[in-house]
Amino acid sequence: MNALTSTLNDDFGENGHLAFRDAGEGFIVIDIDNCHCTATIALQGAHLMRWNPKGEEPVIWMSPAATLAEGKSIRGGVPICWPWFGAHATEADFSAHGFARTVAWDVINTSSLDDGTTCISFRIAEINRDMWSDQVPVEMHMQIGARLEMELVTKNRSEESVTVGDALHTYFCVSDVSKVSVRGLDACEYLDKVGPTVRKTQKGNINFDQEVDRIYFDQGQDIVIRDPIMHRDIRIEKRNSHSTIVWNPWIDKTLRMGDFGSDDGYLGMVCVESANADADMVKLAPGYTHRLWVRYSIEK
Ligand SMILES: O=P(O)(O)OC[C@H]1O[C@@H](O)[C@H](O)[C@@H](O)[C@@H]1O
């Protein structure tokens, strides 16, 4: 154990069920093992990499070829897109999905609920002031148990209104994406981003037999990923999220990205991202707080 992990464990370790570890070259991760689940979170990006409820198949997909390195985004888990989603509205050289996923975050609190659920809170540690005001910080609060709750909190302490885009870009584990359906977005309008962007209306459930990359404009209703082979539904509840991104890169894009672990790595995942993107970005007046909240649970 290095000096930093040992200090973090002294300050925030929780009775043997929350521990900091150097995963190599100073890349620090947090392992959680409580009565409900095991989980791993990278300190960089406050990036949840794994959540395995006990007795269940893994819920969160992580690429076997994911690299854990300073300043690099991790392929899989729950990347935090903040303070914009996708390309920046005006600055072409700002990185896609914002900077929160590739910078250091600090742990600010850990605790356990009476039922054994682990709570952990983070605050972003680095804001590049050329890109964003350091008077508009962000925190992430997680409750990790039989269900997984995450709340991304943006506070505007500046004197001016700001426009925030955000997403919990969650990669879910599925048996075979060509057999699953995403339910709950029937009749919603969406931007289809495969090829030239076109506005369309969803009819029925979403199935996958080619690349899917869509921003849905929804009403915050629950969304369900139905997996008939794993015999489970993953339920996504959310608050203060008015967009949902549904993404699977399919074959060609997987080959171009090269970090899915294998050429058919795309079959085992689907991203269903609770967001405020495009026309749904949040205008935050001075003194106001925006809380993007999700809860994931497994139903048989
Ligand atoms: O490779 P990145 O930056 O993690 O993005 C992955 C995908 O993220 C999705 O949210 C976008 O809609 C896709 O267009 C994008 O390809």
Automatic annotation (TrEMBL):
<dbReference type="GO" id="GO:0047938">
    <property type="term" value="F:glucose-6-phosphate 1-epimerase activity"/>
</dbReference>
<comment type="similarity">
    <text>Belongs to the glucose-6-phosphate 1-epimerase family.</text>
</comment>
<feature type="active site">
    <location>
        <position position="169"/>
    </location>
</feature>
<dbReference type="InterPro" id="IPR014718">
    <property type="entry name" value="GH-type_carb-bd"/>
</dbReference>
<dbReference type="InterPro" id="IPR025532">
    <property type="entry name" value="G6P_1-epimerase"/>
</dbReference>
<dbReference type="GO" id="GO:0005737">
    <property type="term" value="C:cytoplasm"/>
</dbReference>
<dbReference type="GO" id="GO:0005975">
    <property type="term" value="P:carbohydrate metabolic process"/>
</dbReference>
<dbReference type="GO" id="GO:0030246">
    <property type="term" value="F:carbohydrate binding"/>
</dbReference>
<dbReference type="InterPro" id="IPR008183">
    <property type="entry name" value="Aldose_1/G6P_1-epimerase"/>
</dbReference>
<dbReference type="InterPro" id="IPR011013">
    <property type="entry name" value="Gal_mutarotase_sf_dom"/>
</dbReference>
<protein>
    <recommendedName>
        <fullName>Putative glucose-6-phosphate 1-epimerase</fullName>
        <ecNumber>5.1.3.15</ecNumber>
    </recommendedName>
</protein>
<dbReference type="Pfam" id="PF01263">
    <property type="entry name" value="Aldose_epim"/>
</dbReference>
<feature type="active site">
    <location>
        <position position="273"/>
    </location>
</feature>
<keyword id="KW-0413">Isomerase</keyword>
